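[recover] target loaded
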């Protein structure tokens, strides 16, 4: 058996980085978090970190095959998975080792499978060579499993694995180019780390002065006097002070912040929470705090507009103390500072504070290595093609570097800093705009410098294929109440994060209290954001980024949020009775929740006449007597008391024009793609939703 570094790290409750350092100390040569360790090594590390150390010789690769007494926790590696459900092995002599092929004896759960390392998809002829059989024989055997392939066709992991097993072999996927690349970039040489600037985002309630503060800082600290005071807007800018630099992300607000996080990047080191002294804590202030907390980013509070008359800073501080952000001068831990975006008062202090905070956080990076970083924003520029503002996290980005970001790749053709100057290189935390990508990446996507453009393209091609595949299984990765139980059982899930929206504060508190009481030893419940109001896009983004479910109580969902939830695969549920919400979560935790479908009535159309139209077929001339009939709705054709047909509309017209919806009081022509429609029938449009099963 082997186990990957990141898996073992998880088992041991430490980070991959810590484990790699530990392994290096033990003189075990590992490249990164995807590297595989054999059982002996894993046992040794476990001994070192956990129970009594077992002194054993170190062997990482091709070492002795001493079988460990106890198998480590089952890792979901393909070989094991297949072995579990495979039939008895077919008698077959072990083929000789293929030259250069690395064969590792491992202990499978039921029988001895020899492990071959291969790349997927694997062509039938290549697999035949590895299994030392004739391709025709392999094709025949595959046919026996109802897998019809030609000699050059590729087999996926599942099919190749199941057939290999019949020959006594397990297949192990070689790490992909991307995994190797990421693992390579993940190794950090601690001795080369140098301090870097903090990356700061302004968040807070609308009109509290986020934009004004960013503008004021840029105007007074960044503007290039020689260039005539015009700054380039590139999505981020850098401020240089005597004691160091600070980088500001120029997209204030938590929506942008969380959208980036949902793409996998947490660019921000410090959140400056802007609270207007004359307004105090407002709903979006709370929302911003929840977003920052979910991302585990420290918060510094800037109490803005202190130039105004009749303000009460102490009142704001008191409010802060009430929401778990107790100010330092009140004995708490939260740094607060009074500022004015109008007069500039307090801004130098704020900047200094951010540098101090950076020192405390020990933000460091190694500038002497190929760069990796984050896309802050990107767009298609008419003259320049795709342009992306990026922030380097590690290394230095140079003109001419081959890079890939998301599903795009290219070569850095030109780079500009926040003042619009051409630059040749950019080190850690320096924002630059780059030209040369093949397309526009998403904000928050990571970029990597790779060996050359070909390698970048190769990796991106695989990524695109995987992205297409994922699109097909859209949303399956996000947690839903339905799959909660299985995940808990599999030990994959330790915390259920909930976003709670309700119509009134009282209900919010009541549901929150009852939900928190459901926490068990296996799974902890936490409400990462709770607020009065409809479910909006920002809630969905937060749920997506944090893998949370959204529970709405007596609230609606904005149409944009609905579309986004569908796209992101976020589970949103609405309730009208508190105990139903609580019971559903409880049932989900106990594996008692099964989805049921619920029909919502959308509209009714009465069939007044039936026509036969060439090419279209039978069209029912209708009058919409109630609600509306949307083009993409599911319809029931009702005759008397019977439902004679249920299915999608195949065409919806008004006179001769295709329409998206037929409203109440209007006439329309509906075709259902069937012949059996009669005058006097009714067509009812419905929406079918999957909802949680209610417990009695
Ligand atoms: P945002 O929505 O948080 O980005 O807020 P804005 O920066 O757009 O500011 C909202 C309003 O407050 C604008 O009319 C600003 O001129 C005003 N404002 C912002 N900061 C200050 C300040 O420090 N003092 C005063 N008096 N007004 C401010």
């Amino acid at each position: 058996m082997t186990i990957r570094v990141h898996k073992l790290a998880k088992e041991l409750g430490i980070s991959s980085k810590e484990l790699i350092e530990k392994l290096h100390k033990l003189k075990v040569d590992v490249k990164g978090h995807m590297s595989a360790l054999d059982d002996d090594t894993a046992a040794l590390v476990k001994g070192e970190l956990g129970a009594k150390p077992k002194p054993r010789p170190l062997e990482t690769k091709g070492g002795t095959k001493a079988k460990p007494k106890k198998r480590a926790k089952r890792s979901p590696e393909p070989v094991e998975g297949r072995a579990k459900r495979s039939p008895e092995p077919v008698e077959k002599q072990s083929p000789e080792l293929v030259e250069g092929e690395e064969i590792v004896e491992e202990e499978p759960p039921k029988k001895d499978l020899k492990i071959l390392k291969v790349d997927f998809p694997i062509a039938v002829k290549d697999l035949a060579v590895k299994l030392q059989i004739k391709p025709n024989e392999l094709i025949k055997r595959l046919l026996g499993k109802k897998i019809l392939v030609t000699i050059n066709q590729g087999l996926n992991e599942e099919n190749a694995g199941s057939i290999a097993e019949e020959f006594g072999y397990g297949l192990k996927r070689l790490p992909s180019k991307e995994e190797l690349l990421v693992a390579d970039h993940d190794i950090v040489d601690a001795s080369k780390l140098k301090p870097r600037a903090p990356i700061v985002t302004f968040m807070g309630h609308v009109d509290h002065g986020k934009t004004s503060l960013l503008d004021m800082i840029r105007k007074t600290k960044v503007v290039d006097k020689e260039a005539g005071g015009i700054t380039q807007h590139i999505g981020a800018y850098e401020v240089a002070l005597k004691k160091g630099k600070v980088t500001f992300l120029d997209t204030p607000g938590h929506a942008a912040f969380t959208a980036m996080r949902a793409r996998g990047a947490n660019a921000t080191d410090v959140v400056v929470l802007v609270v207007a002294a004359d307004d105090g804590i407002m709903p979006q202030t709370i929302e911003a705090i929840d977003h920052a907390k979910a991302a585990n980013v420290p918060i510094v509070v800037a109490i803005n507009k202190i130039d105004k008359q009749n303000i009460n800073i102490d009142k704001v501080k008191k409010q802060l103390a009430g929401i778990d952000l107790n100010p330092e001068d009140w004995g708490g831990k939260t740094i607060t500072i009074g500022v004015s975006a109008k007069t500039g008062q307090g801004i130098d202090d704020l900047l200094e504070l951010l540098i101090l905070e950076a020192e405390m956080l020990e933000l460091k990076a190694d500038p002497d290595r190929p760069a990796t970083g984050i896309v802050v924003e990107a767009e298609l520029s008419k003259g320049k093609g795709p342009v992306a503002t990026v922030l380097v996290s590690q290394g230095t980005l140079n003109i001419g570097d081959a890079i890939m970001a998301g599903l795009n790749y290219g070569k850095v053709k030109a780079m500009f800093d926040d003042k619009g100057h051409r630059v040749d290189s950019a080190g850690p935390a320096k924002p630059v705009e780059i030209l040369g990508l093949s397309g526009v990446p998403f904000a928050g996507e990571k970029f990597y410098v790779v060996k050359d453009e070909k390698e970048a393209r190769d990796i991106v091609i695989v990524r695109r294929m995987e992205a297409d595949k994922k699109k097909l299984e859209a949303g399956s990765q996000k947690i839903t109440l339905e799959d909660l139980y299985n995940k808990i059982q599999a030990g994959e899930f330790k915390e259920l994060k909930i976003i709670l929206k309700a119509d009134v504060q009282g209900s919010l508190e009541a549901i929150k209290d009852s939900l928190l009481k459901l926490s068990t030893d296996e799974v902890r419940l936490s409400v990462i954001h709770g607020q009065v109001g409809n479910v909006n896009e920002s809630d969905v983004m937060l749920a997506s980024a944090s893998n949370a479910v959204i529970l709405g109580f007596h609230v609606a969902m904005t149409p944009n949020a609905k579309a986004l939830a569908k796209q992101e695969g976020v589970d949103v549920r609405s309730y009208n009775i508190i105990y139903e919400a609580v019971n559903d979560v409880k049932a989900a935790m106990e594996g008692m929740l099964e989805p049921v479908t619920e029909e919502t009535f959308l509209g009714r159309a009465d069939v007044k006449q039936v026509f036969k139209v060439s090419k279209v077929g039978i069209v029912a001339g209708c009058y919409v007597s109630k609600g509306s009939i949307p083009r993409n709705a599911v319809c029931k054709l009702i005759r008397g008391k019977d439902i004679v047909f249920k299915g999608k509309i195949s065409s919806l017209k008004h006179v001769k024009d295709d329409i998206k919806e037929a409203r109440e009081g209007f006439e329309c022509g509906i075709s259902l793609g069937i012949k059996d429609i009669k005058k006097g029938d009714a067509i009812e449009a419905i929406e079918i939703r999957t909802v949680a099963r209610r417990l009695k």
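[recover] notes: Confidence is low (pLDDT under 50) at residues 51-110.
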